[in-house]
Recover the amino acids of this structure.
C-alpha cells in the first residue's frame, strides 16, 4: 500500500511576513514589481496576474507586469517590455471610467471579485475576450485589488486571474480568504513600492542636483563651460574600459556598480571648490587682466605721455623755430614717438603671457616703469607697482597669489564635500574629488600625497582633468594644443610620475584619446590617430 504524501500547508500569516520583509529589502524596481505579482499569484493560487501603476497625475494606469503561467507569458520589469496602451482613468468628457474593472478599482478604492468575467455586469471585458480569442485562453475568475500607500493614496492596481482549485484542477472563484491575503499583500506592496520609488526619486534628484551645481560652476566662465561634463565622460569611459579588461595590468581590477557611482559623483564634483574662485582669475587671459584688461590704462597713459611731450614743446615755442631747427625737432619727435610705440608694443606683447620672459625683457620692463607722466599737476608712474608685478610674470598670466587662489579650489572641494553626510557607499567622494591635482611623485596639491596614498580613482580623475585642459580649444589664456602635442606632454608627465604611467599607457592602448578627440576637438587638432609612447 502506497502512502499518500501530505501537501505542506501554507501559513498565510507567516508567508505574508516573509514576503513583507522581502519586499522591503528589494531595491531593484523591476525585481520588486515582479515579486509583487509572483507572490500574490502564489498565495492566491492564481494562474495570471497584472500589475498596473498609476501615472503621477493619476489620469491613467500603466501596465507594469503581466504574467500568465498557462500561456507562459512574462512581460514587464526585466522581461519583455509591454507596449499596450495605458488604461484611462477618465473618459474624454472628463467623467470617471468605471467601465474598465481596473480603473473602477483605482477610482473607487474597492476590491472587485468576479466569479466569471463573461457573465459580469457593469464592466466592459471586450479587451479580455479579444485576448482569449487570440490565445485560446479562457479568462474566468478575477480579483482586482487597489494598492494604497501609507498616505492612503492609490498608486496602482493588482489584478489576479483564474484562481485554481488544487484538488480539482479547475478554475474557481477567488475566496474571501484570497481577498484578505491579496488585500494585505497589496498594502505591503504599495508601501514597499512607494519607498522604493521615493529612494529612486531622491537618488535621481541627488544626481540631478550634483550635475546642476557642476554645470553652474562651469558656467561661471564662458571659457570653461562643459569642462566637468567632458571630464566625467573621460573618467567613466576609462573606468568602463578597465572593467572590460581581460588581460594586462588591470585584468584583476573591477569597479562594482556602487564604486562606479561613487567615481561618477566624484568626477562631477571635482571642481566644486571653484565656487569661490573669482572668474577674473579663472579666466585670466593676460597678465594685467582683473575684471578688465588693464593694458587699456597703459595705452591711455602712453597717450598722455605723448601729449605731455607735445605740450612741453609748445610751451618752449619749439614750433616757431627756424626750418633747420624744426627739421631737427621733427626728427627728435619721430624718434620719441617711435620709442613710445616700441615700448607700448613691447608691453602689449608681454602682457599676453604666451612667451617666456627672460632677464633682458625684465630689465627693459623695469626701465619703462621708471617713466613718469603728469596727471592733475601730479607726477605719477607710467606703470603702477601692481602692474609691474603682474607684467613681470615670467611664464603664463597667473601670479603667485592668484595661483594659490586657484590651487585652493582643491582644498575647498575637500572642505565642502567633507561636510556633506554621504552614505557609506559614497563616503570616499570627498577624497577622490579633492585629489585630482595630486601627483604620484608628491609634487601635487593640496595634500602633497605620494603614489602609495593615491587610489586608482583619484588617478583616473587626474588624468582626465589634465587631458581635457590640455586639449581644450576655448581657453583665452592659451592656444589650443593639437592631439599629438598634448599626448607628448602627458607622456613626459608619466615619465616623471606626475600622472600614473600604467593608466596613461592604458588610455593610449584603448584609444580613448581618439574617441574623445573625434567628439570634442576641432579637425585641425586631430593631427594623429595612432600615438606611440
Amino acid at each position: 500500500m502506497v502512502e499518500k504524501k501530505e501537501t505542506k500547508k501554507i501559513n498565510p500569516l507567516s508567508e505574508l511576513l516573509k514576503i513583507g520583509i522581502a519586499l522591503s529589502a528589494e531595491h531593484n524596481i523591476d525585481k520588486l514589481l515582479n515579486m509583487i505579482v509572483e507572490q500574490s499569484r502564489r498565495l492566491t493560487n492564481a494562474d495570471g496576474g497584472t500589475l498596473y501603476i498609476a501615472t503621477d497625475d493619476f489620469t491613467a494606469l500603466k501596465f507594469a507586469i503581466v504574467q500568465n503561467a498557462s500561456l507562459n507569458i512574462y512581460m514587464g520589469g526585466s522581461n519583455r517590455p509591454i507596449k499596450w496602451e495605458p488604461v484611462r482613468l477618465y473618459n474624454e468628457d472628463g467623467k470617471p471610467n468605471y467601465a474598465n474593472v481596473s480603473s473602477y478599482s483605482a477610482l473607487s478604492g474597492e476590491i472587485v471579485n468576479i466569479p466569471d468575467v463573461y457573465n459580469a455586469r457593469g464592466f466592459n471585458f471586450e479587451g479580455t475576450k479579444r485576448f482569449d480569442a487570440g490565445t485560446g485562453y479562457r479568462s474566468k475568475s478575477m480579483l482586482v485589488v487597489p494598492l494604497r500607500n501609507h498616505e492612503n493614496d492609490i498608486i496602482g492596481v493588482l489584478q489576479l486571474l483564474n484562481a485554481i482549485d488544487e484538488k480539482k484542477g479547475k478554475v474557481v472563484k477567488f475566496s474571501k480568504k484570497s481577498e484578505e491575503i491579496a488585500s494585505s499583500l497589496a498594502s505591503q506592496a504599495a508601501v514597499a513600492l512607494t519607498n522604493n520609488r521615493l529612494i529612486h526619486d531622491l537618488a535621481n534628484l541627488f544626481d540631478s542636483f550634483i550635475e546642476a551645481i557642476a554645470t553652474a560652476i562651469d558656467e561661471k566662465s564662458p571659457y570653461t563651460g562643459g569642462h566637468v561634463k567632458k571630464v566625467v565622460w573621460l573618467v567613466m569611459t576609462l573606468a568602463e574600459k578597465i572593467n572590460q579588461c581581460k588581460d594586462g595590468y588591470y585584468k584583476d581590477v573591477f569597479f562594482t556598480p556602487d564604486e562606479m557611482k561613487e567615481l561618477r559623483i566624484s568626477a562631477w564634483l571635482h571642481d566644486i571648490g571653484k565656487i569661490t574662485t573669482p572668474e577674473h582669475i579663472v579666466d585670466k587671459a593676460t597678465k594685467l587682466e582683473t575684471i578688465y584688461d588693464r593694458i587699456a590704462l597703459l595705452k591711455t597713459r602712453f597717450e598722455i605721455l605723448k601729449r605731455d611731450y607735445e605740450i612741453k614743446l609748445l610751451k618752449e615755442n619749439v614750433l616757431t623755430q627756424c626750418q633747420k631747427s624744426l627739421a631737427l625737432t621733427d626728427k627728435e619727435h619721430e624718434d620719441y614717438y617711435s620709442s613710445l610705440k616700441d615700448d607700448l608694443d613691447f608691453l602689449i606683447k608681454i602682457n599676453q603671457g604666451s612667451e617666456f620672459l627672460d632677464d633682458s625683457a625684465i630689465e627693459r620692463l623695469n626701465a619703462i616703469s621708471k617713466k613718469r607722466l603728469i596727471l592733475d599737476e601730479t607726477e605719477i608712474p607710467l606703470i603702477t607697482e601692481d602692474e609691474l608685478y603682474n607684467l613681470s610674470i615670467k611664464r603664463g598670466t597667473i601670479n603667485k597669489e592668484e595661483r594659490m587662489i586657484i590651487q585652493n579650489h582643491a582644498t575647498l572641494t575637500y572642505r565642502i564635500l567633507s561636510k556633506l553626510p554621504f552614505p557609506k557607499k559614497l563616503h570616499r567622494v570627498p577624497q577622490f574629488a579633492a585629489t585630482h591635482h595630486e601627483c604620484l611623485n608628491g609634487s601635487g596639491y593640496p595634500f602633497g600625497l605620494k603614489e602609495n596614498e593615491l587610489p586608482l580613482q583619484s588617478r583616473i580623475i587626474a588624468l582626465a582633468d589634465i587631458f581635457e585642459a590640455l586639449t581644450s580649444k576655448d581657453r583665452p589664456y592659451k592656444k589650443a594644443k593639437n592631439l599629438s602635442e598634448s599626448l607628448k606632454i602627458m607622456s613626459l608627465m608619466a615619465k616623471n610620475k606626475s600622472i600614473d604611467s600604467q593608466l596613461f599607457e592604458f588610455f593610449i592602448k584603448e584609444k580613448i584619446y581618439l574617441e574623445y578627440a573625434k567628439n570634442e576637438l576641432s579637425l585641425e587638432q586631430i593631427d594623429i590617430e595612432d600615438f606611440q609612447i
Q: What stands out?
A: The first strand starts at residue 46 and ends at 54.
